[in-house]
Design goal:
By secondary structure, the protein is mainly α. The chain has one domain (69-257). The chain has helices at residues 5-20, 25-49, 60-80, 83-91, 94-99, 105-133, 139-144, 146-165, 171-187, 199-206, 209-221, 231-257. The two termini are 32 Å apart.
Length: 259
């Protein structure tokens, strides 16, 4: 029985990554260690010693680590759904070459999202192992936080793929990271509860997919004591982002690639 065509695109991504994985070692293995050392252990000692209304009921390292897991999934997915997609469309034109075979646009889109899902899963498992080694959570709860992190990454991968498919040049990608990904990283509950934000920013944060990913990862990693909203609401919201992003990506890719 022949494999689904989209799996050929996943295979292509895996074969390319087999030759380029060394370039991602720092971001995959060292970034979690450095972030948890600097922010969780270093800054965390000051936060844990502090007083006031913003005090946490748990060690800052424990609070921070699951949020960084979700944020790392977002950053990994956004990276793999931006410049590589632009390369496939405009620079290397590998997507045009693929469409000269029996592959169709939907195979490109779903295969690409499938490969990004595998990449994010690998990164999330590594991060969960590292935050467990730091004592931020137990091994079981760390693994429980991996699926929502992957779902968060997939939500961003679908949306960013659609965004990239409509761009004529790479300038829009720099804008996306500068004014989209970085602010989400800072203001979606990764480093502090969003209740500490001004009211209008707090309500905006509730609407971001990263906030819901952070809530799910933190709740599962901390034995279900830290869900900021209902987990069912968060899962449904992230699934809606995946569905809407994939639909838009498929539509915009067809418009861009099919003459």
């Amino acid at each position: 029985m022949a494999a689904p065509p989209a799996l050929r695109v996943v295979e292509y991504g895996a074969r390319v990554y087999r030759r380029t994985w060394r370039g991602s070692v720092i971001s995959t293995f060292m970034n979690p260690v450095l972030y948890l050392l600097a922010m969780g252990v270093g800054l965390g000692k000051l936060v844990d010693q502090g007083t006031g209304s913003a005090g946490l009921a748990l060690p800052y390292l424990t609070f921070l680590a699951p949020g960084l897991l979700a944020a790392t999934a977002m950053q990994t997915a956004a990276g793999d759904a931006s410049y590589p997609v632009m390369a496939g469309i405009k620079w290397r034109k590998t997507y045009h070459a693929a469409l000269a075979t029996p592959l169709e646009v939907r195979d490109l889109v779903f295969g690409h999202l499938g490969w990004v899902t595998l990449r994010v899963t690998f990164v999330a498992v590594v991060y969960a192992a590292i935050m467990t080694a730091f004592g931020a959570t137990s091994p079981l709860e760390g693994l429980l936080a991996v699926p929502p992190a992957v779902l968060t990454g997939l939500a961003f991968a679908a949306a960013v793929t659609a965004y990239t498919a409509r761009l004529k040049n790479e300038t829009g990608l720099a804008t996306l990271f500068r004014f989209g990904i970085v602010p989400l990283f800072l203001f979606s509950g990764t480093f502090f509860p969003i209740t500490q934000l001004p009211d209008w920013i707090e309500w905006a944060a509730y609407g971001t997919p990263l906030f819901h990913g952070v809530s799910l990862c933190r709740g599962l990693a901390l034995d279900a004591v830290a869900f900021e909203v209902s987990p069912l609401v968060s899962v449904a919201y992230l699934l809606a982002w995946v569905a809407a992003g994939a639909w838009l990506a498929l539509r915009l890719m067809r418009r861009r690639l099919v003459v």
